[in-house]
Specification:
Structural class: alpha+beta
Number of strands: 32
Shape: globular
Number of helices: 21
Helix content: 25-40%
Radius of gyration: 34 Å
Strand content: 15-25%
Length: about 800
C-alpha cells in the first residue's frame, strides 16, 4: 500500500498536479443498510464526487494509483459474504495509460460499493471500519474516511456520517431491490432450510443427521410442543430398519406461540440398521419433515407434504460416539498409554535411581525378586489411589495444573540436578540416620517402606508428563462411572510397573558380580549425564508456561551439546571423576558408546541454526520459541497471511489463532473448517506432533490452505478480563485465565482432558470426523488422512442439497 502511495505521489509531482487535501473536499460519503430479512443484509457505501473528479477501483495494480480499500472489522455478530462489489460502469483512466500503466479503472458521479453480510445475531449492532481511497481531477488527493453501519435496526435503515453531506441517492443509481414481506399476507415463506448429513459406523450401522438452519428471528416448535410438535417420517427399502427413534435435542428456545422451541441451528439424528450389510439399500432414504415455525407474531406450517431423498450409501465412516466403551478396551488403551509414558523424560530419569536403590538393597536373587514385586505393586496402588483422590478432591483438571505448575517443574529440576550430581560423584545421597536406625530395628518393615517411598517418588515425578493422560481417564468417570477411571488407572500403572519390576530384578544379578571392576561406576556416571540433560526439560517447562524466553531453543540445545560432549570425552577417558578407577584401555563397548554419543552431539549442532532435529522433537522448545524462529536464512511469511490480524506465526509458519471465538469467526468468514488444537506449552507430545507430523508434505498444505487453526493452550496463565470470569458448568470452579477457559471448553464440550487433541469443526461448530490425538494419529499418514476425511466431509456438508419447505400462515 505504501509503495502505491509513493508511486502516485511521485507521478503527480512530476506533472505538477499535487494539491493539498485540506483545500478541496471533492468526495462526500454516505452509508446505507438494506435488509431483506434478519438473516442477511447488504451494506452500501456511496461516494458522491464533484464534477470531473473520479475515484479508483479496488483492484491494486503495480505502479498504479491507490485503490479503494475497505477495512471490515472482525466481529462475532456477522460474517462477510464474498467480496465488496463495485459498479461495472467504470472506464479506463487515459492519463495512467499514457504513463505505461494500462487497465486502471475509475468511476465518476455517484459511486456505490456493496458488501453482503450474514447476520449471526438477532440483536442490534454496529459495524465500524474505514475506507482508504484516492480521488483525482487535475490533482490527486489520497483520503480516508470512517464508516458506521447499524444492522438489525429496521429494514433499509440509513445511517449518515455526521462529517459528510446528506446526499440524496436516486433509487435507480443504487439499484436497491424492493423488499417484499409476504409473512403478513398469507403468502409463502421459507425461514427453515434442512440439510441431510449421512454417517456410517459399520457395514450395518448408519446415522442420518437432519440439520435445520433457522433464520434469525424465527423459531420452530419442539418435539413436546402441545400443538405443533416437530417430527420426521422415513421411507426405506426392505432390509433396512430404524434403530430406535429420532434423537431430538432439548428445546430451550423461548417463543410465546410455542411451548418449547428451537432457534438458529439444530441437529436431529436417526439411526438405521442394514440387516444384510448391503450399502446399496441405503441409496434412497426418503425423509419427510413436519414442523411449524414462528416469527414471534404468527405461526406458519407446510401447505403440502415435503420430502427429500438421501443417498446414504457413500456415507463417511466414523467411530460411533454412542458405543459404550468396554472395560477391557479401556484397560487396553490405558495399558498402551502407560508404555508410551515410559519414554517420557519425566519417567525415564527415574530408572537410574531405581538401579542405585536396588543395588544397595538386594543382597540375594530371592530378595531382589521380592523387592521388585513390592516395588511394582506399590506403583499400582499409589497411581490408582493418588489419581482417584486428586480427581475426587480437586477435579481431573488438577493433574494438568500440576504438570504445568511453575514451582512443581522447578522443584523437580532442582531434584534431578541433585540426583545427577550424586551420580557424577559430587556426594552420596543417604536416608536420614533415624530412618536407617528404624530400618535396622524393623528390618523387613523398614525395607518395604523404603521401596514404597521409591515408588511414591516415581508416581509424583511421572505426573508431570502423564497428568493430562491420566486426567482423560478420570474424565471418563462422568460417563462410565467410577469403575471406568479405576480400571484405566490400573491398566496405566500396570504398564509403568511391569518394566520397572523386571528391571528391578536385574540389579540383584549385577550385585552378585565382582565389584572390583570400574565399569559399574562408568554406568552410574553415564546415567548421571543423562539425568542432568533431562532435568533441563523441567526447567524448560517452567519457562514455557510463563513465556519468559530465558531458556529458548538455541540455549537448550547448546546445554545438551555441552552435556553430551562432556559425556563423550568422559567415555574416551579424557578426564576422571571421583570413584573412577584408572583406565588402562578402551573396551569395545565403551568406544562404541562414545561414538554414538559424539554422533548425537554433532547431530544437534545444526539445531543451533534452525535445523528441525526430529530425533529429539518435543524435548527442546519448539522452533517458534527461538531467537531465530524462521531459521538462519529464513524470513517472515509474506502475502495473504498478513491480513489475519489476530493470528500468530505458528509451527512451520502456519497462521494460528490463540482465541477460539476469533478463529471460529474467521473460519465462517472464509467458509473453511476450523481445526481446534488443544495443546500446552509444557506438552512434550504436542511438540512432537508439531515438529514430526505437521511439517510433512501430505499435512502442511492442508493445515495452511484448507482450514483455520486454533491452538488453545490449556496451561496459558494469562488472566482473563475480570468481566469474563465465570463458573465452570463441569466442576463448579471459577475460570479466571485463558488456560482454564480452554481446558474447561475441552472438558465440558468434548469430555476429554488430554493434550494434544484435535477436532475439525464446520461453521456451526459440529465435529466433522471424530477426534485425533498423539497416540492414534502420531504419524503423518494417519493425521493427514484424518484431515483429508474432515475436509471431504466439510465440502460434502456445503454441497448437500437443501430442502426449504414452503410455509403459509395459519394464525
Amino acid at each position: 500500500m505504501m509503495k502505491r502511495f509513493f508511486t502516485a505521489v511521485l507521478f503527480f509531482l512530476a506533472t505538477g498536479t499535487i494539491a493539498l487535501a485540506q483545500m478541496v473536499e471533492p468526495a462526500k460519503w454516505s452509508w446505507k443498510v438494506v435488509q431483506k430479512d434478519t438473516k442477511e443484509a447488504e451494506l452500501i457505501a456511496t461516494v458522491k464526487l464533484d464534477k470531473d473528479w473520479h475515484i479508483y477501483s479496488q483492484k491494486e495494480l503495480a505502479d498504479g494509483p491507490l485503490p479503494t480499500v475497505f477495512s471490515w472489522p472482525k466481529m462475532a455478530t456477522y460474517s462477510l459474504v464474498g467480496t465488496t462489489k463495485e459498479p461495472t460502469n467504470g472506464h479506463a483512466d487515459k492519463m495512467w495509460e499514457e504513463q505505461g500503466v494500462p487497465n486502471v479503472i475509475c468511476f465518476e458521479g455517484s459511486v456505490s460499493f456493496r458488501q453482503k453480510i450474514k447476520i449471526l445475531t438477532d440483536k442490534k449492532f454496529e459495524i465500524k471500519g474505514n475506507i482508504s481511497y484516492m480521488v483525482c481531477k487535475e490533482s490527486c488527493i489520497p483520503g480516508e474516511v470512517n464508516f458506521s453501519f447499524t444492522v438489525n435496526d429496521g429494514v433499509a435503515a440509513t445511517n449518515e456520517d455526521t462529517k459528510v453531506e446528506d446526499t440524496k441517492v436516486e433509487p435507480d443509481t443504487l439499484n436497491v431491490a424492493k423488499v417484499e414481506d409476504n409473512t403478513n399476507k398469507g403468502g409463502c415463506t421459507n425461514p427453515v432450510a434442512f440439510r441431510f448429513i449421512p454417517k456410517k459406523f459399520s457395514k450395518q450401522d448408519y446415522e442420518l443427521t437432519i440439520r435445520a438452519n433457522i433464520d434469525t428471528g424465527w423459531t420452530i416448535a419442539g418435539k413436546n410442543d402441545s400443538r405443533y410438535p416437530v417430527k420426521f417420517l422415513f421411507e426405506f427399502p426392505e432390509g433396512v430398519v430404524l434403530k430406535g427413534e429420532v434423537e431430538y435435542p432439548e428445546a430451550n428456545g423461548k417463543d410465546k406461540l410455542f411451548t418449547k422451541s428451537y432457534k438458529y441451528v439444530v441437529d436431529f439424528k436417526q439411526r438405521f440398521f442394514v440387516e444384510t450389510g448391503d450399502s446399496m439399500l441405503m441409496q434412497n432414504i426418503v425423509v419427510k419433515p413436519y414442523y411449524a415455525a414462528s416469527n414471534g407474531t404468527n405461526v406458519f406450517q407446510q401447505s403440502a407434504e415435503n420430502s427429500k431423498s438421501v443417498d446414504m450409501s457413500k456415507a463417511t465412516v466414523h467411530t460411533d460416539p454412542n458405543m459404550p466403551e468396554s472395560y477391557l478396551l479401556i484397560f487396553i488403551e490405558a495399558f498402551l498409554a502407560g508404555f508410551l509414558a515410559l519414554l517420557m523424560p519425566c519417567i525415564f530419569p527415574m530408572i537410574p535411581m531405581t538401579v542405585s536403590f536396588f543395588l544397595k538393597r538386594s543382597k540375594t536373587r530371592k530378595e531382589g525378586i521380592a523387592n521388585a514385586v513390592t516395588y511394582g505393586l506399590s506403583i499400582i496402588v499409589i497411581y490408582v489411589a493418588l489419581g482417584s483422590i486428586i480427581s475426587a478432591v480437586f477435579g481431573s483438571d488438577a493433574l494438568n495444573a500440576l504438570a504445568t505448575n511453575i514451582w512443581f517443574n522447578l522443584f523437580f529440576f532442582v531434584m534431578l540436578v541433585v540426583f545427577a550430581l550424586s551420580f557424577l560423584g559430587a556426594f552420596e545421597l543417604t536416608l536420614p540416620a533415624s530412618w536407617v536406625n528404624a530400618a535396622d530395628r524393623r528390618a523387613d518393615k523398614g525395607g518395604k517402606i523404603g521401596i514404597f517411598f521409591m515408588a511414591f517418588t516415581l508416581a509424583l515425578v511421572s505426573f508431570s508428563c502423564t497428568g493430562p493422560i491420566i486426567g482423560s481417564l478420570l474424565v471418563v468417570a462422568s460417563k462410565e462411572g467410577i469403575m471406568g477411571p479405576l480400571i484405566g488407572m490400573f491398566g496405566f500403572s500396570l504398564a509403568i510397573a511391569l518394566p520397572f519390576t523386571l528391571f528391578a530384578i536385574f540389579p540383584s544379578w549385577l550385585n552378585s558380580m565382582p565389584s572390583s571392576g570400574g565399569w559399574l561406576n562408568t554406568v552410574k556416571v553415564s546415567l548421571g549425564f543423562l539425568e542432568l540433560a533431562f532435568s533441563f526439560k523441567f526447567l524448560s517447562n517452567a519457562d514455557l508456561v510463563v513465556q519468559a524466553h530465558l531458556l529458548e531453543r538455541e540455549t537448550f540445545i547448546a546445554i545438551w551439546i555441552a552435556i553430551f560432549g562432556l559425556w563423550g570425552l568422559y567415555l574416551l577417558g579424557k578426564f576422571k571423576l571421583s570413584h573412577d578407577s584408572d583406565l588402562a584401555y578402551l573396551s569395545t563397548g565403551r568406544l562404541t558408546t562414545a561414538v554414538l554419543v559424539f554422533s548425537f552431539t554433532i547431530y544437534m549442532i545444526p539445531g543451533l541454526f534452525g535445523a528441525p532435529l526430529k530425533w529429539i522433537a518435543g524435548f527442546p522448545p519448539g522452533p517458534n520459541y527461538s531467537e531465530i524462529p524462521y531459521g538462519i536464512h529464513g524470513e517472515a511469511p509474506k502475502g495473504k497471511q498478513k491480513r489475519k490480524v489476530h493470528t500468530v506465526d505458528g509451527p512451520h509458519h502456519i497462521p494460528s489463532f490463540h482465541n477460539y471465538d476469533e478463529a471460529l469467526e474467521y473460519a465462517r468468514e472464509i467458509n473453511k473448517p476450523l481445526l481446534i488444537d488443544f495443546t500446552g506449552y509444557a506438552c512434550v507430545n504436542c511438540r512432537q506432533m508439531e515438529e514430526l507430523v505437521w511439517g510433512e508434505p501430505n499435512v502442511l498444505p492442508l493445515m495452511k490452505d484448507s482450514m483455520v487453526l486454533a491452538s488453545l493452550y490449556v496451561d496459558d496463565k494469562t488472566a482473563l478480563p475480570e468481566d469474563q470470569w465465570y463458573t465452570s458448568k463441569f466442576d463448579g470452579k471459577e475460570i479466571r485465565t485463558f488456560g482454564q477457559k480452554w481446558s474447561d471448553l475441552q472438558k465440558t464440550k468434548y469430555r476429554s482432558n488430554s493434550q494434544p487433541q484435535y477436532f475439525l469443526l464446520d461453521n456451526f461448530e459440529t465435529v466433522l470426523n471424530g477426534t485425533a490425538n498423539y497416540q492414534d494419529h502420531g504419524s503423518a499418514d494417519r493425521f493427514g488422512k484424518w484431515l483429508e476425511q474432515g475436509i471431504e466431509q466439510f465440502d460434502m456438508f456445503n454441497k448437500v442439497d437443501e430442502l426449504k419447505p414452503c410455509l403459509v400462515q395459519v394464525q
